[in-house]
């Protein structure tokens, strides 16, 4: 074995993400991933943070738009507008970057379809939950995604979880229980808010599955292709809900829905671009600025305020996530490629 191949094998063994079961050469797949990172990355932390914060603000604004239209527009229709009208933005971006061919070329169409099913399910359930819960609460429950990703990686991929990450998972799950207890503790599963909490929790688990799936996909697929084909697949899958209550929106609602797609497309570009200028471990803590944006928009737009219980629970989840981020940075596990092609609602 050559020195380069040995280095690649050690990297795969370190991550334990299950790539050894892929029907591609490990050295070729890993080298492609490294080339992608190298070609797209230069260290400009200030620029990276600004891009990430702008993306988070836009994603939170997108969620607020969907919430504002949820009384009249069903979730499936909202998913269509969010996905379909993001496609022109993504295509223009890929064309300007000279990556249009990368965005259309794929070696794993089935992988994109599965990612589309998981992501569309997560997005649809999140959009339903937005109509039932305050915006800050939806945001807080969504913070549990990295915790569920870690659990699912251990169960499905055999990743080893040692004491520090076990502690992080425990802290995070306690935080989730604290946030959900006011909704689930009553035992009234027919309550709208309780149903909303359940939907958001299921969506959070689905996003954990998406993260695991994308970890595999980035080894053979360009990030541009993952971004483009998700929007395309989600648009097509959302049409399956057409017989279930779609409405013809009034002009104001139509403008909001189209804006959601455009905003989502721009936000996706910004978050993807941010990982070109700084490592994921440095940018990950800024994800939690979404709570500030959610509280601000929730108060101004919907007259909502977070409860003390929700803030305590979200604080515990954030603490668990920060512990995971710190541990993965110490182990050298870089999740930037996977994080750069997902948005918080899919």
Automatic annotation (TrEMBL):
Presence of keyword Membrane? yes
One Pfam family cited in the UniProt record for this chain? EamA
Membrane topology per the entry is:
Multi-pass membrane protein
UniProt keywords (A-Z) are: Membrane, Transmembrane, Transmembrane helix
**Which parts of the chain span the membrane according to its record?**
48-66, 78-96, 117-135, 141-158, 163-181, 193-214, 226-248, 254-271, 283-302, 308-326
Gene Ontology cellular component terms for the protein in this record: membrane
User: What family does this chain come from, according to its entry?
Assistant: Belongs to the drug/metabolite transporter (DMT) superfamily. 10 TMS drug/metabolite exporter (DME) (TC 2.A.7.3) family.
Return the protein name: Putative S-adenosylmethionine uptake transporter
């Amino acid at each position: 074995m050559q020195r380069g191949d040995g280095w690649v094998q050690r990297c795969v063994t370190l991550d334990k993400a299950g790539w050894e079961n892929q029907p591609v050469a490990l050295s070729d797949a890993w080298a492609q991933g490294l080339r992608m990172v190298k070609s797209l990355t230069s260290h400009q932390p200030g620029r990276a943070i600004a891009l990430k914060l702008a993306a988070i603000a836009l994603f939170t604004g997108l969620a607020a738009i969907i919430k504002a239209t949820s009384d009249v527009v069903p979730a499936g229709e909202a998913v269509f507008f969010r996905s379909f009208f993001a496609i022109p933005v993504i295509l223009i971006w890929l064309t300007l970057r000279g990556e249009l061919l990368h965005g259309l070329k794929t070696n794993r169409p089935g992988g994109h379809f599965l990612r589309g099913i998981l992501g569309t399910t997560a997005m649809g359930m999140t959009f339903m939950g937005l109509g039932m819960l305050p915006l800050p609460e939806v945001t807080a429950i969504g913070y549990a995604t990295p915790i569920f990703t870690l659990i699912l990686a251990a169960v499905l991929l055999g990743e080893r979880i040692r004491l520090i990450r076990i502690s992080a998972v425990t802290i995070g799950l306690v935080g989730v229980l604290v946030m959900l207890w006011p909704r689930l503790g009553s035992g009234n599963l027919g309550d709208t808010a309780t149903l909303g909490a359940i939907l958001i929790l299921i969506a959070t688990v689905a996003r954990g599955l998406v993260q695991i799936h994308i970890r595999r996909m980035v080894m053979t697929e360009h990030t541009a292709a993952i971004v483009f084909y998700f929007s395309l697949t989600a648009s097509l899958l959302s049409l399956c809900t057409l017989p279930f209550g779609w409405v013809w929106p009034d002009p104001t609602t139509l403008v909001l829905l189209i804006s959601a797609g455009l905003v989502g497309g721009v936000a996706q570009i910004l978050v993807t671009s941010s990982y070109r200028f700084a490592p994921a471990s440095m940018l990950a803590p800024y994800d939690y600025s979404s709570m500030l944006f959610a509280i601000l928009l929730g108060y101004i737009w919907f007259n909502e305020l977070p409860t003390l219980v929700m803030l305590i629970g979200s604080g515990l989840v954030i603490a668990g996530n920060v512990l995971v981020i710190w541990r993965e940075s110490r182990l050298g596990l870089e999740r930037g490629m996977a994080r750069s092609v997902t948005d918080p609602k899919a």
